[in-house]
Design goal:
Elements (H helix, E strand, L loop, with lengths): L2 H40 L2 H34 L2 H35 L6 H30 L4 E4 L2 E4 L2 H5 L2 H32 L4 H36 L1 H7 L11 E6 L11 E5 L2 H7 L9 H12 L23 H28 L10 H9 L1 H16 L4 E3 L11 E2 H4 L5 H32 L18 H7 L1
Antiparallel strand pairs: 1-2, 3-4, 5-6
Length: about 500
């Protein structure tokens, strides 16, 4: 493999790995803050136990997310230096805001929350939980604003061969970002909800202690998961309509729509090899005219296919790469404007499918635990524990589709934006040897694998330990009031 391909594999592996931690942290932080709010308002001990148990798992996951996330920004300069120079004037502001504002607030208030249980006044301590939780969402906002600029460049002029930002407001209010943010947050709540359903469902099935904690956690997760999937569907539709305008090749690839159709049918599933740009041997099961509606809100509009779009891209951005030695073997070669069709087509369906399965498991768990019922079937714990993986897989498939679907661009041209503000991925990579990239790829993958083992060990340890592993033991059997020692520990 050449440097470009190796660098893409490295960034893909580390980024997908890191993003396994991010949505769980975002979603679980809000739910833990909500649990603590409920305890402060009602004084019910089960809500304190829920806060302690799920808060411990949140801390483990957050710590791993920080460690793995540090590498992401280093990679810009390590393997993608040309890209860093091109986007540096734009990315500097949102990434600085993420680091100095959001992450600083996260770290500060998380520390206060961890060490303030028996030191801070109850409502002040609760405020720390909410400050940390909202800061995680702010951090996601700034990162998504930067990523969305790559998908739809706005707020810049083109000077001296690179974009120069002239409006930070335009970057932060990019319509691509405003659509991506609620969709990403809904995905985070879907992950956290499945996590609650899986872990709490397993404990509830075992019929151990603290049944009230597990029932409340499971049902909270079930309802949040259903609501999150509804929001995902609505925001996903909004994103799709924007993509048809801003990145028509990506959406044509997502449907394996090789030829322009009017009206265009939505492909439910394809049989055959979708990797070819003409799709002659592919048989699809379609819903007539639905793709036209998803693209333009009517059932008659034309949707352009891959073959037609290739000609348009060639006319706008050239047929061949520049004859530049920095491009390696691609110098002067024809540009392939068609992304990896199997990845985009099946990635799009995996994203939707896994999200639907996760919501379905949540609905089933709610039904089986209605009216104080306790599931007894032997398949139940396997179902809910396996269901934890489904939104993780859906999130990962969605991001892989989003990033690989914009190839061969690393900065996608804005159809109505400033001329010249776009960049081929082949132009973005650093001038490294294959040996250097192989070394960093192997080293980072090994370190991340080790961190994965540590995370799974700690998660398994605290999950199996249950509430008793995070609550202090009673000091004596002669306490005058129920729960006296536990509440004394809290405040």
């Amino acid at each position: 493999m050449e440097v470009l391909e190796l660098a893409r594999w490295q960034f893909g592996i580390t980024t997908v790995y890191h993003f396994l931690m991010v949505p769980l942290t975002i979603g679980l932080s809000i739910l833990v803050a909500a649990m603590q709010t409920r305890w402060v308002r009602t004084g019910e001990l089960r809500h304190l136990k829920m806060t302690k148990f799920w808060g411990k798992l949140l801390l483990v996951n957050f710590a791993m997310g920080v460690v793995t996330g540090i590498v992401q920004e280093f990679q810009f300069g390590m393997s993608w230096s040309a890209y860093s120079r091109f986007v540096g004037d734009v990315f500097g502001a949102p990434l600085a805001m993420e680091g100095l504002v959001a992450f600083f607030v996260e770290s500060t208030f998380l520390g206060l929350w961890i060490f303030g249980w028996d030191r801070l006044q109850k409502r002040v301590h609760l405020m720390c939980a909410w400050a940390f939780s909202l800061a995680t969402m702010a951090s996601a906002y700034f990162i998504l604003a930067a990523n969305s600029w790559m998908q739809h460049p706005v707020g810049v002029t083109f000077e001296n061969g690179k974009p120069t930002m002239n409006s930070i407001w335009a970057v932060l209010t990019n319509n691509t970002a405003l659509a991506a943010i609620p969709h990403t947050l809904a995905g985070a709540f879907s992950v956290a909800a499945a996590f609650l359903v899986g872990v709490a469902g397993w404990h509830l099935w075992r019929r151990g202690e603290h049944a009230e904690v597990w029932r409340s956690s499971l049902r909270l997760g079930g309802w949040v998961g259903v609501a999150a999937f509804a929001v995902l569907a609505i925001t996903g539709d909004t994103q799709g309509k924007l993509m048809f305008e801003q990145q028509p090749m990506k959406m044509a690839s997502a449907e394996a729509l090789c030829h322009t159709e009017k009206p265009a049918s939505f492909s439910i599933i394809a049989i055959g090899d979708v990797s070819g740009a003409n799709c002659e041997d592919v048989k699809t099961f379609n819903v007539p005219a639905l793709l036209s509606f998803l693209a333009h809100n009517d059932f008659k509009t034309e949707v352009k296919g891959v073959e037609n779009l290739v000609g348009e891209y060639q006319a706008k951005y050239g047929t061949n790469y520049p004859d530049d030695p920095a491009l390696g073997s691609l110098a002067g070669k024809p540009i392939d404007y068609v992304p990896n069709l199997p990845v985009t087509y099946w990635g799009f369906r995996m994203m939707i499918g896994f999200g639907a399965v996760s919501a379905g498991i949540g609905v089933l768990a709610l039904w089986l635990t209605r009216r104080d019922r306790v599931p007894t079937a032997r398949w139940f714990p396997w179902l809910v524990l396996g269901g934890i993986a489904t939104p993780f897989l859906g999130n990962s498939a969605g991001w892989i589709f989003t990033e690989m679907g914009r190839q061969p661009f690393v900065v996608v041209p804005n159809p109505s934006g400033v001329d010249g503000v776009w960049m081929f991925t082949a132009q973005a990579v650093s001038r490294l040897t294959t040996g250097e990239v192989w070394t960093s790829l192997i080293a980072l993958t090994t370190v991340y694998a080790a961190l994965g083992v540590v995370e799974l060990y700690l998660m398994r340890k605290y999950v199996r330990g249950g509430v008793d592993a995070v609550m202090p033991p009673k000091k004596s059997k002669d306490s005058d009031k129920p729960g006296e020692d536990t509440l004394a520990f809290a405040y």
